[in-house]
Amino acid sequence: MEYRNLGRSGLKVSQLSYGAWVSFGNQLDVKEAKSLLQCCRDHGVNFFDNAEVYANGRAEEIMGQAFRELGWKRSDLVVSTKIFWGGSGPNDKGLSRKHIVEGTKASLKRLEMEYVDVIYCHRSDSSTPIEETVRAMNYVIEQGWALYWGTSEWSAQQITEAWGVAQRLDLVGPIVEQPEYNLLSRHKVESEFLPLYSNYGIGLTTWSPLASGVLTGKYNSGKHTT
């Protein structure tokens, strides 16, 4: 397995990672999760991704319990989670300081961890000023609840604005963006984000490399076109 620095940070992550989106809590429980995670570790994967919204929080619970029962050193793992959709209440979603703080604490409780390595803003929030979000993510880092922060499915303009706020206030900017990237979805990564790589050293942790299975051909039903 190859390991790469995440953006310009010193954090080293495996070239391949495991995300719990459609599996933990929907298809797999703790026993199966332990077997799958052990297979990942046996092949050098050290990077594991989750989110507060996955299986309504159950995915984080399963991952945390599986890690505990496997008895792995926390320093050997790079764990990320994402904050945006935390519930049905008016303050249970979005990127307000309130939800970022409360959502992060709830995620850590489910994961049974003192901190995550990377915490993402799972989407952009048009109802919250970006400055409030940048300040809140820095507060999370200052409290030791996360070591780095990033964005997921933000536009280049929004990431640039977040970095502008961070630089103006001498705060930490996002080190990573998590966009969809595959043969059917290439524009952001290959065109829109180009200035971000050189200007801010943004790293990428892409999702859906096989377009939710479409690129495997499993939905073709045996039909072939020429």
From TrEMBL:
It comes from Actinidia rufa. Belongs to the shaker potassium channel beta subunit family. This is Potassium channel beta subunit 1. Residues 16-224 form the NADP-dependent oxidoreductase domain. Keywords: Ion channel, Ion transport, NADP, Oxidoreductase, Transport. One of its GO terms (molecular function) is oxidoreductase activity. The lineage of its organism: Eukaryota, Viridiplantae, Streptophyta, Embryophyta, Tracheophyta. GO terms for biological process: monoatomic ion transmembrane transport. It comes from the Eukaryota.
